[in-house]
């Protein structure tokens, strides 16, 4: 088959990967010269720990696929570093104890650690916490270099062509006309527009059940020591559905979230880049129109929390940014995957799970699309 893919973020690139791996030819279009959306504005986390029970199978499958991809494309930067959620009060410890006792705890790689055990696994963590929830299944990739690395690998097949800097304007059958007037014809068209919900996606597919979510993040200069795992704080227990249960209900009653964190829908996630700097976030804003500037209060909160867990000052902040991702609004769907006619599909809305689930979502698409 000849597959035309529109959108060079993780969703579109993962679909290109699956098509080429199955022996097909891919023409890959993007309006930008490089991915500039949520794909490069995220942590690069392959995050198993907090996923809900219905998401667990596809998440574990994607974790396997990322490890396989990382072995073939080292520049993706895959590493099975795991994570530790640092617990600062008895109510947070109770949530961790509850989830570590569940039937799926072994599959997630959950282990409740004492403070001394946390420091043994990750010596950089010398700050204020009581215990830690270790998740050995979590992993990370380098979000800013993964897409170019994957495209370079695909190009060696001789069956992959990347066409950057063009905007898809029209779909006729299974052909796509771009804004330069070039028609790209194939046997299948897959639109992976990320958070661009208007334009061609809306024209062809109408109103899909998706919304946009805005976040703020930042990155530091090199830390000067190794952070052997990714880290999260107890606010992540409130955010991820995998921690839902009686102990979380009690946490919410007994330990109100700090006002700045509650106002901005915050949790702390922190992962060390291969160059030594820390990517730190994040916030969640759901109501449009989004603000066009960044708010300093959430950044100050994230710095304070990270320094308290590390037990040392952070290196200078080198970059701050905002990003917007697409989230399916139907709770029983992991992604919005629709077809309007034979061979014409749209795939969008994985929410903040795009980097984690991209390969497995694309693998499912390949089966549905007959690749």
UniProtKB/TrEMBL annotation:
GO MF entries: oxidoreductase activity
Cofactor: FAD
Coiled-coil regions listed: none
Keyword Oxidoreductase attached: yes
Pfam families: DAO (PF01266)
Ranges for domain FAD dependent oxidoreductase: 2-368
GO terms for cellular component: cytoplasm
Keywords: Flavoprotein, Oxidoreductase
Domain of life the protein comes from: Bacteria
Matching PANTHER family: D-AMINO ACID DEHYDROGENASE, SARCOSINE DEHYDROGENASE-RELATED
NCBIfam families in the cross-refs: HpnW_proposed
Protein family membership: Belongs to the DadA oxidoreductase family.
Protein name (Swiss-Prot/TrEMBL): FAD dependent oxidoreductase domain-containing protein
Organism: Gordonia namibiensis NBRC 108229
């Amino acid at each position: 088959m000849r597959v035309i893919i529109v959108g060079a973020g993780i969703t579109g690139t993962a679909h290109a990967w699956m098509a080429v791996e199955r022996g097909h030819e891919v023409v890959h279009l993007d309006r930008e010269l490089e991915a500039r959306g949520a794909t490069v504005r995220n942590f690069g986390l392959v995050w198993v720990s907090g996923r809900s029970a219905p998401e667990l199978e596809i998440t574990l499958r994607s974790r396997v696929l990322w490890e396989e991809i990382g072995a073939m494309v080292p520049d993706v930067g895959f590493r099975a570093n795991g994570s530790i959620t640092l617990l600062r009060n008895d109510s947070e410890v109770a949530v961790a104890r509850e989830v570590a006792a569940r039937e799926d705890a072994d599959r997630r790689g959950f282990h409740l650690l004492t403070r001394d055990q946390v420091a043994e696994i990750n010596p950089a963590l010398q700050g204020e916490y009581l215990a830690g929830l270790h998740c050995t299944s979590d992993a990370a990739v380098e979000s800013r270099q993964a897409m170019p690395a994957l495209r370079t690998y695909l190009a060696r097949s001789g069956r992959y062509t990347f066409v950057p800097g063009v905007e898809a304007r029209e779909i006729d059958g299974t052909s796509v006309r771009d804004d330069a007037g070039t028609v790209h014809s194939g046997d299948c068209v897959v639109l992976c527009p990320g958070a661009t919900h208007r334009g061609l996606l809306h024209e062809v597919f109408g109103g899909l059940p998706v919304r946009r979510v805005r976040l703020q993040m930042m990155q530091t200069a090199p830390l000067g020591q190794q952070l052997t795992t990714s880290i999260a704080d107890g606010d992540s227990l409130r955010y991820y559905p995998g921690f839902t249960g009686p102990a979380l209900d009690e946490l919410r009653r007994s330990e109100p979230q700090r006002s700045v964190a509650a106002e901005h829908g915050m949790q702390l996630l922190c992962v060390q880049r291969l160059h030594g700097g820390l990517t730190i976030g994040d916030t969640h804003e759901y109501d449009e129109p989004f603000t066009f500037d960044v708010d300093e209060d959430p950044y100050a909160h994230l710095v304070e929390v990270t320094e308290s867990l590390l037990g040392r000052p952070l290196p200078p902040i080198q970059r701050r940014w905002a990003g917007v991702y697409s989230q399916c609004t139907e709770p029983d769907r992991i992604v919005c995957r629709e077809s309007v006619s034979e061979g014409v599909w749209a795939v969008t809305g994985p929410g903040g799970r795009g980097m984690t689930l991209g390969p497995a979502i694309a693998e499912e698409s390949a089966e549905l699309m007959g690749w």
